[in-house]
Amino acid sequence: MQFPRYNFSVDSHTFELLELPKILAQLEAACACELGRARVRRLEPSTNVGEVTRRINETSQARLYLEAGKAAVFGGISDVSRLLKNAQIGSMLEAGELAAVGLFIAGARRLKGGIENASREDEDGQQFTLLVHQANRISVHPALEKAIADAIDLEGQSVKDSASLRLLKARRGMARTQAEIQSKLRAMLTSTNVQPHLQDNFVTVREGRYCLPVRAESRNSVPGIIHDRSGSGGAFFIEPQAVVELNNRLRELALEEREAIREILQELSARVGEVAGELKSSSAACGELDFTFAKARLSLKHQATAPLLGKSGFNLKAARHPLVEHCIPNDIRLGDDFDVLMLTGPNTGGKTIVLKTLGLGVLMAMCGMHICAESGSSVCLPRRVFADIGDEQSIEQSLSTFSSHMSRIIKILNEAESGDLVLFDEIGAGTDPDEGAALAKAILRSLSRRGTLVLATTHYGELKQFALSAERFQNASVEFDTKSLKPTYHLRIGVPGASNAISIASRLGLPPDLAQRAKRYLGKAREETELATQKLEATQRELREQTEEAVQEREEVQRLQREFDKKLQKLQQERDAEIAAAHAQAARIVREAQNEADSILKELRSAAKESKQTEVARGRLKSLRDKTRVNAPPIAPEPPRCHRAPVREEVEEEIEAPQVIKQGLKVGDSVRVSSFNKEGVLLTLPDNNDRVEVRIGAMKVKVPLRDISKPGGRHQPAPVAAFTGKVFGVPQEINLIGRRVDEAILELEEYLDSALLSNAKSLRIVHGRGTGALRRAVHDYLKSTRAVTSFEQAPMNEGGEGATVVTF
């Protein structure tokens, strides 16, 4: 297939063999405007490392830009280079041409602004530097943009009435004159003196003048000027004498309008000509940006990656041919450990696809495009790429297939140098196998000694053996499944392949006796070699499958390890939180006990002698000691950190086999606590005294096991004593004056919990008047508390607006 649009200056035949024009056609279709498409048509692979690096980095930045959800807007941008050239030499642009220039200036400004805004939003400030560099070449001309928009209707591509006062007067005069002419002519259409002489009842325009269609025989009955005659000759188009003067006036105004428009267009054209050079630079920058974003869109379409540029050799990881659907990815290496790769295998096994994948990938990289391979793939930039692929028998030149190939190969031998890439498909084919193999050896050896990198496909067993012993040569093959007798298209470097021609022929229906006869003709030594190669292929395939399974299993183990680590970390955090809460509760109990003990001691010291007062104080002190012992939560010492394996076993046991207690309940279930007539969450298993810990709202309580049941059950409350971390003897009033709102609500929450546990019926909250903020916060909290039946302002003798009475 020929692609005449792409006039490559270097070896366009190779580019067409490797299907580069098809990729460029996709790239051209991905462009948003003609400027980008023209840039694609000028594209050629480059050997300049700096230029190719910049192109690839531009593609990468444009892809990041698109992946970030940003849009590169090219609306209004078109190729105005011809218009700019005309304006620059002093030619006057028409209204439509100026409209195109105005749209271009506005579109280029929007494109530049969008890229600059994206760069400012970039946290690193480095993601779009190359795009910003291109956008900086776009010059912004707001005054000219406004002048064109004010004077030219960009959609209708005509000059606006408001473009100048002279034009406005001319057009208004024309409108008035036209209205006057039409009014007079309509009156004549209904006049009894004129109407009988008319061919049709309408007004028409001939040579810019308003006329009436008059019957040929009545042309002398309507005085005026004849301007035209109908095709049938039955009517004359006459300008009545009554409107001649008005038509003359209309013609003068039209000339005035034309002069006013010309004046406007000349002025705007001159202004465009003054900045034509800057606008040409803007046009080139817009074309480059469109071209760059097209490469990024193609990269996203093909799921391609940016190649690394190496000094020598090619290393493509999981490379795919971008034009082949469901292409099997292959690792392709050439140039590091070996310079010549001899690729063998059955027909239709994918050898040519591997050949083209390497060649096309290298050319795409040289064009600054991403390649269809995994990240980390690297290519060098050869001086030239040569290819001899396919059957090119030439009838016109009387050349056979072999002659055609040899002509191409001789040309390659005359031009190829060190570092070039040469691709041979079925080298030496089309002639006697012995002579073809001998020629192939000589050709490949000559190129290898020059330092040329070569990938060649062949069916010749002699070349496989040659590659085993020749320096800087390596065998490779495309895999063939001998069980299904189908190719797998997997490339294996270092393993020669079997042609499997007889096996394939048998699968296609060759009689078994003919297949056996063919094997005898093949010779025992050759047959053994083929069988050994087939066994090697099967072994390699099994190893690859086992490797893939091992990789999958390793990934699964790593995933499970990550999940376990997350669960372990969560459990450790929950344990640390429980310990911290217990410490805080114990500290509060100690603090409260200390305060009350100080108060009791103060009373004892103030008493002069043993009295009823001292006896009561000692009783209170004993009660305080007992209560502190009961209320203080047990704080187990933090267990020592152990090795990961034992911890994992313990945690897994706890997660996988939770202990079930009464009525099928387990830790974490919702339960009903009969003694409180409330629901909560079961936190612990029964202790030695058959007590369990339950969280009810924000508090934790210890209750007998018999006191809990499933929610909704009919378990009757038993008269039991519940041990909690709260003090049962609470005052009937709490004073929150002087507290911040958040501090006051926390203190109020704890106070209400204690009051509920002490079976209080009502209490008083002192919050003061002040600004009213604390009172509103207290009332909002009481509204959200289900235990509160009602609350109201305290009586005047008990605080009035400064206090609230709560009823449970």
Overview of this structure, please?
The chain folds into 5 domains: 31-141 and 275-302; 165-243; 309-522, P-loop containing nucleotide triphosphate hydrolases (Rossmann fold), CATH 3.40.50; 658-724, SH3 type barrels (Roll), CATH 2.30.30; 733-807, 2-Layer Sandwich (Ribosomal Protein S8, Chain: A, domain 1), CATH 3.30.1370. Helix content is 49%, strand content 15%. The strands form 7 sheets. The chain has a 6-stranded mixed beta sheet, with helices on both faces. The protein has a 6-stranded antiparallel beta sheet with strand order 21-17-18-19-20-22, with no helix packed on it. A 4-stranded antiparallel beta sheet has the order 3-4-6-5. The radius of gyration is 48 Å and the shape is flat. The protein is built from 22 helices and 26 strands. Helix 2 runs antiparallel to helix 3 and helix 21 packs across helix 22 (773-783). With 808 residues, the protein is of the alpha+beta class.
Q: Which key phrases capture this entry?
A:
alpha+beta, 5 domains, 6-stranded antiparallel sheet, 26 strands, flat, 6-stranded mixed sheet, about 800 residues, Rossmann fold
- The gyration radius over C-alpha positions equals 48 Å
What fold name stands as the CATH topology of the largest domain? Rossmann fold
CATH superfamily of the largest domain: P-loop containing nucleotide triphosphate hydrolases
Give a quick account of the main beta sheet: strands, pairing sense, barrel closure: 6 strands, mixed
Beta-strand content bin: 5-15%
Count of structural domains? 5
Strand order of the largest sheet: 12-13-14-10-15-16
Regions with pLDDT < 50 over 5+ consecutive residues? 392-398, 635-659, 714-728
Count up the helices. 22
Shape: flat
Mean pLDDT: 82
CATH class membership of the largest domain: Alpha Beta
* CATH 2nd-level architecture of the largest domain: 3-Layer(aba) Sandwich
* Number of strand elements: 26
Structural class: alpha+beta
Residue share in helix: 40-55%
Beginning-to-end CA distance, first to last residue = 92 Å
